[in-house]
């Protein structure tokens, strides 16, 4: 469990969140915050533990932090509770985790089990992490693209359009072909 906690905290810090808190009264929990998001992470040993305790643990943790939530202003509308468990969930537990996430009361919820490796942990944290990579597009020769796509006009008119010809000449050619 310590590994999941440490790695989740590290990944959130890498995503520009301030991470505070130590394990204590509400299990293995910590707080994460940036300019727009305030969040609480609760970590469990198993999916069954998470499913059995998530609601009571989150309510208790949020109740102890109600003043911090009030002071956060608009950020309180963007509060997350992240529920993470090690170990793969059974199919019934996976359904129960989905139902937790679909519960829209009070705060946003991310409930995931099977966070035993970095790839699974990253998938769990994905809603909180920035876009990982921008799409890479190849350079495009726009004249070649236009030539390939403009199949319904004459090549003479197309070449005039693509050249540095005066637009009046191009318009005149267009009128003649119409």
How would you describe what is shown here?
- This protein is of the alpha/beta class.
- The protein has helices at 2-14, 47-64, 66-71, 91-102, 118-125, 142-149, 155-162, 167-177; strands spanning 18-20, 28-33, 38-44, 79-85, 108-113.
- It has a five-stranded mixed β-sheet.
- A hairpin with a 4-residue loop joins strand 2 and strand 3 (38-44).
- Helix 1 crosses helix 5.
- The chain is elongated, with a radius of gyration of 27 Å.
- The chain starts with a helix and ends with a helix.
Keywords:
single chain, 178 residues, alpha/beta, Trna Endonuclease, Chain: A, domain 1, 5 strands
Integer-rounded radius of gyration: 27 Å
User: Would you tell me the structural class of the helices and strands?
Assistant: alpha/beta
Order of helices and strands: HEEEHHEHEHHHH
Number of separate structural domains = 2
Q: What is the CATH architecture annotation of the largest domain?
A: 3-Layer(aba) Sandwich
| Contiguous uncertain segments of 5+ residues | none
**Terminal residue distance:** 74 Å
CATH topology of the largest domain: Trna Endonuclease, Chain: A, domain 1
Q: Per DSSP, what share of the residues sits in E-state strands of 2 or more residues?
A: 15-25%
* Tally of individual helices: 8
Q: How many β-strand stretches?
A: 5
As laid out across the biggest beta sheet, the strand order is 1-2-3-4-5
Instruction: Characterize the main sheet.
Output: 5 strands, mixed
* CATH level-1 class of the largest domain: Alpha Beta
Shape: elongated
Helix-residue proportion: 40-55%
